[in-house]
């Protein structure tokens, strides 16, 4: 008996998710999908809709990563297409939110997963008339119609990827009305891009650019539209807005037309054909007359000419239930203004992401409470610091040091103790705690050597093999190079040890021109963001009071050229490899980011795990209220970097959508501003 109960529960559970409410249109005879032998199997998927979306997302991300590395033009085009599509969605959500409501969705049919859910919008307010665009002049009866319907069904479902036939109803040349898209009353069709949700789509079989609709089709169309108009309270002669895609921002425009319209009124198409379209004014008037006079018009029906037996199927009436969602949360995320307005709606969601990630990676929240800012730097003080020099430890050039071959644009001026030497090329070798300078066979051993170009050109370390992706050497430096001994934090062991240190001293503005925290493949506003943040980051530590964890308080240097510990600084030849980045520098050189008049510390990293961390939760900082936790959809499996502040990948996506540097900065660091002089 227990087994029987279990089976009964399973069967009832299956029924509960299958049946939508049948169309109830008095006076209209509808040939159902079962009666026209629709093959429901082609709507099915091997996996649940959510799993399929996740799989497709992973597949798309892998493809985009491949294209980013192998075919940037196609990568750029796909990103641009995504941006245009999202802009159109944003336009509809902001201007017509009620029309975009999904009242419920069904994701399975019996025990089968649907490739596209049956989604519902109950407040239909417009009816769009189509033609199928196929010549029906050779039809000989219902067998011809059914064969034709099967072709349309396969084309819409499989070839076009719509998950089912796109129209809600179809009318054959004999006036028969067929159920189109599965789901019953109020199901959303796939017949008119950007207008599907609040509309109903009716398609007459035929190509009415070359043939005329039959009288039976027109009679049934008037009857069907009358019944639907009565059901949904639609006045066919009233006006409403339709939405058409354009090629300029916001890539969408709205036009006004009748609530009973042809497809060409809501899109760039000739549908429903000239001969059917010409009759729409009379059809509207006929429907209005029927509604005013309370006339119930029956649809036309002919006796099928077919050898197949029509099976009458009794469908259990069950109102579809599902999760109500006015606006999809991920759709909101693509627009910064909407995201900022609704960020509180995602607190629970972000908390769950953090909990899942922390559990999977065995992360416990910090209990430390500390301050990050030792000394506030005012806007005026920051400008003064920019007029001075910065001293950059060349970490890689200093590591595994034996000897360095030095050359200059002109002649090199070497200062070794109290002696100076001038020559074109030199060799500086380590000699225990000292350095030996070799020139024309003569050697000088001292504890420190300083090298500059005699005409303020660049100094080059010829046997330093760091290069750009284009194989251009990054071994030339403005200002001077100092060879000495310093305490340096080893990136492998995280311990400080005294070692050879090559320090590049140069004007701060020259240093900024050599920072490569961004690249030429990124959008201008992302480049601008990174230049401003990296400038502020360096200035924050330049005053000597706000100490960096990788720079000991007794060090003579105040920056490091390695991005793992400070910033990626590549020297004087950045302009030869990253021309776009170098050119953009002119737009940011007289700008600074401030928070309440002072210079903030603005951490950044490469890629998040779906969220960013606040300064307080990661570092225990209690004095950085502008470093908050944010949703970060363009994510990696794990954090690439510390996870605090701005995420590079999502910032690039926002810039790709033409978001300004100010918008991007204020999303990640609320309250900051860009000040110019």
Description:
The protein has 677 residues and is α+β, with helices and mostly antiparallel strands. The protein has 19 helices and 26 strands. Strands 12, 13, 14, 15, 16, 17, 18, 19, 20, 21 and 22 form an eleven-stranded mixed beta sheet that branches. Strands 1-7-6-8-5-11 form a six-stranded mixed beta sheet, with helices on one face. A hairpin with a 2-residue loop joins β14 (419-431) and β15 (434-439). α2 packs across α3, α5 (215-232) packs across α7 (280-293) and α14 (524-542) packs across α16. It starts with a helix and ends with a strand.
Which short descriptors sum up this protein?
6-stranded mixed β-sheet, 677 residues, disordered N terminus, alpha+beta, 11-stranded mixed β-sheet
Helix content: 25-40%
Number of strands: 26
How many strands, what sense, and barrel or not for the largest sheet?
A: 11 strands, mixed
- The share of residues in extended strands comes to 15-25%
Q: What class do helices, strands and sheet pairing give?
A: alpha+beta
Report mean pLDDT, rounded to a whole number: 83
Radius of gyration: 35 Å
Low-pLDDT ranges? 1-20, 302-343
- Gap between N and C termini: 84 Å
Quick structural summary:
The chain has about 675 residues and is an alpha+beta fold.
């Amino acid at each position: 008996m227990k087994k029987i109960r279990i089976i009964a529960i399973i069967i009832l559970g299956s029924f509960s998710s299958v049946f939508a409410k049948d169309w109830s249109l008095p006076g209209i005879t509808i040939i159902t999908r079962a009666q026209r032998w629709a093959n429901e199997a082609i709507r099915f998927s091997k996996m649940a809709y959510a799993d399929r979306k996740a799989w497709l997302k992973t597949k798309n991300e892998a493809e985009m990563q491949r294209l980013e590395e192998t075919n940037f033009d196609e990568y750029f085009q796909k990103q641009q297409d995504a941006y245009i599509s999202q802009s159109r969605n944003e336009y509809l959500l902001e201007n017509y939110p009620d029309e975009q409501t999904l009242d419920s969705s069904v994701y399975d049919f019996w025990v089968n997963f649907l490739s596209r859910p049956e989604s519902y919008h109950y407040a239909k307010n417009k009816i769009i008339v189509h033609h199928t665009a196929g010549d029906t002049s050779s039809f000989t009866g219902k067998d011809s119609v059914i064969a034709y319907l099967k072709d349309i069904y396969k084309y819409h479902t499989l070839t076009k990827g719509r998950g089912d036939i796109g129209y809600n109803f179809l009318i054959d040349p004999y006036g028969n009305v067929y159920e189109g898209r599965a789901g019953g009353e109020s199901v959303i069709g796939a017949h008119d891009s950007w207008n599907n949700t609040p509309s109903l789509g009716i398609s007459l079989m035929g190509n009415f650019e070359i043939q005329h609709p039959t009288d039976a089709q027109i009679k049934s169309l008037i009857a069907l539209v009358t019944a639907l108009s009565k059901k949904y309270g639609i006045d066919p002669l009233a006006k409403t807005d339709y939405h058409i895609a354009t090629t300029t921002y916001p890539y969408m425009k709205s036009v006004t037309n009748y609530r009973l319209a042809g497809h060409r009124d809501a899109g760039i198409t000739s549908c429903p054909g000239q001969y059917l379209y010409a009759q729409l004014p009379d059809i509207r008037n006929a429907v209005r007359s029927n509604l005013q006079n309370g006339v119930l018009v029956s649809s036309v029906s002919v006796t099928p000419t077919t050898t197949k037996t029509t099976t009458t199927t009794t469908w259990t009436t069950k109102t579809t239930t599902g999760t109500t969602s006015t606006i999809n949360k991920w759709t909101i995320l693509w627009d910064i203004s909407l995201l900022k307005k609704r960020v509180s709606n995602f607190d629970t969601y972000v908390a769950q992401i953090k909990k899942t990630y922390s559990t999977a990676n065995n992360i416990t929240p910090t209990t430390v409470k500390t301050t990050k800012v030792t000394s506030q730097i005012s806007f005026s003080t920051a400008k003064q610091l920019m007029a001075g020099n910065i001293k950059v430890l060349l970490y890689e050039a200093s590591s595994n040091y034996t000897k360095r071959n030095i050359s200059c644009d002109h002649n090199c001026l070497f200062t070794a103790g109290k002696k100076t030497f001038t020559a074109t090329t030199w060799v500086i070798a380590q000699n225990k705690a000292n350095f030996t300078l070799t020139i024309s066979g003569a050697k000088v051993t001292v504890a420190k050597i300083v090298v500059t170009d005699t005409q303020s050109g660049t100094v080059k370390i010829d046997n330093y093999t760091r290069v750009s992706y284009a194989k251009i050497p990054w071994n030339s430096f403005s200002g001077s190079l100092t060879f000495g001994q310093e305490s340096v934090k080893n990136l492998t062991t995280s311990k400080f040890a005294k070692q050879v240190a090559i320090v590049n001293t140069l004007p701060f503005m020259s240093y900024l021109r050599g920072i490569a925290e961004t690249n030429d493949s990124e959008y201008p506003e992302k480049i601008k963001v990174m230049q401003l943040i990296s400038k502020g980051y360096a200035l924050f530590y330049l005053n000597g009071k706000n100490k960096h964890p990788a720079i000991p308080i007794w060090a003579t240097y105040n920056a490091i050229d390695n991005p793992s510990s400070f910033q990626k600084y590549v020297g004087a030849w950045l302009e030869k490899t990253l021309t776009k980045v170098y050119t953009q520098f002119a737009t940011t050189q007289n700008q600074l980011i401030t928070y309440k008049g002072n210079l903030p510390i603005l951490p950044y990293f490469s890629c998040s795990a779906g969220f960013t961390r606040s300064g307080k939760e990661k570092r225990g900082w209690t004095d950085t209220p502008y470093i908050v936790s944010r949703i970060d959809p363009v994510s990696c499996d794990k954090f690439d970097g510390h996870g605090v502040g701005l995420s590079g990948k999502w910032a690039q996506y926002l810039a790709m959508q033409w978001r300004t540097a100010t918008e991007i900065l204020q999303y990640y660091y609320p309250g900051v501003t860009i000040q110019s002089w």
